[in-house]
Design a protein that fits this description.
The chain is α+β, with helices and mostly antiparallel strands and 297 residues long. 45% of the residues lie in helices and 15% in strands.
């Protein structure tokens, strides 16, 4: 069945964390794919199973949160003439139960050709020559959930690097209630999304969640070791194939039903056009076209 996108703006951090635990987020995918050194698939799995708490904000994350307002203000001033509207920030986009991917873009805006684009705000300790792989993965996972209605989605990234001394000064200024400004102009990247990567991340989030969170299959790093213990009721690996087989059958039936409906509509259209030619009448919704045709409902 075709999954649908939902969204909400959590009332507080606890609600936001509770929602994230039930999905694979854009940040989780970066860890699952082994693209960062500070997180890994096993820690991600343990958090999803409630065996490990969410990571507490570190010093760099604190600086990034403080600078985010300054970065957004910079973007609105620098690109305000070409960006038509700035949309909600902090909105969580997620699939229904047919998929397991969720994301929280920093911002979404309407560009100069009236299409929604992503804005991702990044901070770090060193400048970038090119976009890191982890960032490319993150924005494509965000596009998969927040921009499925856009034919050719794109993203804009602003990256501002700060030294340790600058970071310390930023935290002190924020603690004193002062307005924090960027120490330098941020690096700007703007690129179209890669449709194949978007689909790959959708599939990976769904498969990883089903196999390891729902069905309890061990990660490669767990093979030969004691598996991570999760909630009661998880199924053994043999159930995975039965689950996938049943799900594939439902998906195939859904496709067949859609195709049959399209064929039926085409047949009705052909009959209506033929009857119109023969009788001069235009048949509306009040005509039943089952066996022959009769008027009335």
């Amino acid at each position: 069945m075709t999954p649908t996108i939902k969204s909400c703006i959590p009332k507080n951090r606890e609600e936001w964390l509770a929602l994230r635990r039930n999905y694979i987020t854009a940040t989780d995918l970066v860890a699952i794919r082994g693209e960062v050194s500070w997180d890994d698939p096993l820690s991600t799995l343990r958090r999803k199973l409630g065996l490990e708490p969410e990571k507490a904000p570190n010093a760099r994350m604190t600086v990034g949160n403080i600078l985010e307002k300054a970065l957004r203000a910079y973007a609105m001033e620098a690109y305000g003439s070409t960006i038509k509207a700035w949309k909600n920030q902090g909105e969580v986009f997620y699939y229904d139960e047919a998929n397991h991917l969720a994301s929280t873009p920093d911002s979404i805006y309407t560009n100069e050709v009236d299409q929604d684009e992503l804005l991702e705000l990044k901070t770090g300790g060193t400048p970038w020559l090119t976009l890191p792989k982890r960032v490319v993965t993150q924005v494509h996972a965000q596009a998969a959930t927040s921009l499925p209605h856009v034919a050719a989605p794109a993203y804009r990234i602003l990256h501002c690097y700060v030294t340790d001394e600058e970071a310390e000064e930023i935290v002190c200024r924020a603690a004193l209630g002062e307005v924090v400004k960027l120490p330098r102009e941020p690096e700007h990247f703007r690129n179209p999304c890669i449709p194949e990567l978007i689909q790959e991340l959708r599939d990976q989030a769904r498969t990883w969640y089903e196999e390891h969170v729902l069905l309890g299959m061990p990660l490669p790093c767990q093979l030969g070791h004691e598996p991570t213990k999760g909630p009661e009721g998880r199924k053994d690996p043999e159930a995975v194939m039965a689950y996938r087989s049943a799900k594939q059958a439902v998906d195939d039936l859904d496709k067949d039903l859609k195709s049959a409906k399209e064929t039926l509509e085409e047949a009705k259209k052909t009959v209506r056009e033929r009857l119109k030619g023969d009788t001069g009448l235009l048949l509306g919704d009040d005509w039943n076209l089952d066996v022959g045709w009769t008027k009335g409902r």
